[in-house]
Amino acid sequence: MTILPRIAATLAVVVAAGGATADQQDNAVFDLTLRGLYTGTLSVAGAIEGKSYAASGMLKSGGLVALVRKVRYDARARGSLSKGRFTPARYEEDADTGKRQSQSVMDYRAGVPQVKVYTPPKPPRPGDVDPATQGGTVDPLTAAYAALRDVAPAEACRLKLVLFDGRRRSQVVLADPKPASDGGLTCTGEYRRLEGFSAEEMADKSRFPFTLTYAPLPDGRLRVMEISMDTIYGKGRLTRR
Question: Up-side HSE of residue 159: CA atoms within 13 Å toward CB?
């Protein structure tokens, strides 16, 4: 499953704003369908206060898929935001694929990820990405929040982020805004695998195009309502409830 890289292939957000009044708060629930069949729920939320942001997320399987395998992904991220640029400070994830449980923790020093936990450990392989070379990247959850939060029209469809999840490097781009009849916008997007993926993964599919649709809000901002994507399992769609 892919879209916003392992973003959509995993995510849900339920932010911790600690009760303080934030400059921006976002909450959303998306239904995920593959080939027209309901397969899970992505909950999204985040908060920005001053020059700081915090987010947490969860993706869980549903429908017939959950009867076969229960999949759940929880993640938390926090960091700073300056001039529209997200810089993570810490990222934590817990995943359960129904066959395997895993954990990952990254701290960031001067924008460079430091992998603190990656369990179960995986043996080194050719093409592994050295975290020390990944300065300026963001974690998957930060990328998801940056792409899915409410934005001013001038910010819509203007996003390019390079991701690092502890082993793999990928990229998400939003561009080419086009007006919609309801006053919203549609964007052309792409998730691309860059480094750290196996030869089989790259041969299977390395580029995943998607279309993101915004609707207008009363305050003038735009809100993501739908994402249509190509996945390794066929056409997928995230639809906001």
Answer: 30
Longest dimension (CA), the chain: 52
Higher pLDDT, 154 or 44: 154
Per-residue DSSP letter, 35: T
Residue 51 is given by DSSP the state T
> Structurally, how many domains does the chain consist of?
1
- How are the residues of the chain apportioned to helix, strand and coil, as percentages rounded to the nearest 5? 15, 55, 35
pLDDT band at 70 (very low <50, low <70, confident <90, very high): confident
Domain membership of residue 99 as a residue range: 5-240
Per-residue pLDDT tens over the stretch 121-175: 888 888 899 999 999 999 999 999 999 999 999 999 999 999 999 999 999 999 9
